[in-house]
């Protein structure tokens, strides 16, 4: 993994490309629940009734934890992400039916997929809404005739209602100072810490889209929303209480 850089990360257009490309992103989030992610993939692929050896795209795959597990389930998987460092790490797990590519999700793929998964709130990063519509169009264009797409997003209303304004989290000897707030339609997380005598500042900025916002964008993109779920066990979505907003569309 490449050495961390100290970017001036206040440019909203590029916060994701600098933050996701540092080792500190993976340190901060190292305690994510892998078993929960696997249960979600089990439930999702069962619900979609994907054929054996189906072609699956994990869009914004990070270091590939979902893609690797989907491949273990027997699917032909491509993991795509903008972060070169994450793709380099993910590529250590590549095989004849598991490939990883650096890719901008606003661009469609030449090949068609039976399923496209955009997981763990990997949507709504862009400064301009039209880029998110462009992403939806790219997903639609990359689906096979009988393919399905899934966006696993946060439930913004529930997140805002339960927002913790300030938090200190120590991981691997690094003390992360985290501030959260809502501004201009975005849920913003500011992350400050020090390592090896150097100070770092990063920002996460995700648009607080609701189900209604997605329905509007999908309408513009000519997409059909087929179903919504509120958690990784695929329970019914309740806009005020559900943890997740999981949308199945084509």
Structure, explained:
The chain is 28% helix and 32% strand. The protein has helices at 15-19, 23-28, 34-48, 65-72, 84-90, 129-141, 156-161, 211-221, and strands at 55-59, 76-81, 98-102, 113-118, 143-154, 166-171, 174-183, 186-195, 198-207, 225-229, 244-249. The termini are far apart.
Task: Briefly characterize the structure.
The chain has 250 residues and is an alpha/beta fold.
The coarse silhouette is: globular
- Cα Rg: 18 Å
Total DSSP E strands: 11
Secondary structure class reads alpha/beta
**Main beta-sheet strand count, sense and barrel state:** 7 strands, mixed
Proportion in β-strands: 25-35%
Summarize the topology.
Elements: H1 15-19, H2 23-28, H3 34-48, E1 55-59, H4 65-72, E2 76-81, H5 84-90, E3 98-102, E4 113-118, H6 129-141, E5 143-154, H7 156-161, E6 166-171, E7 174-183, E8 186-195, E9 198-207, H8 211-221, E10 225-229, E11 244-249
Parallel strand pairs: 1-2, 1-4, 2-3, 4-5
Antiparallel strand pairs: 5-11, 6-7, 7-8, 8-9, 10-11
Descriptors:
250 residues, alpha/beta, seven-stranded mixed β-sheet, four-stranded antiparallel β-sheet, 11 strands, globular
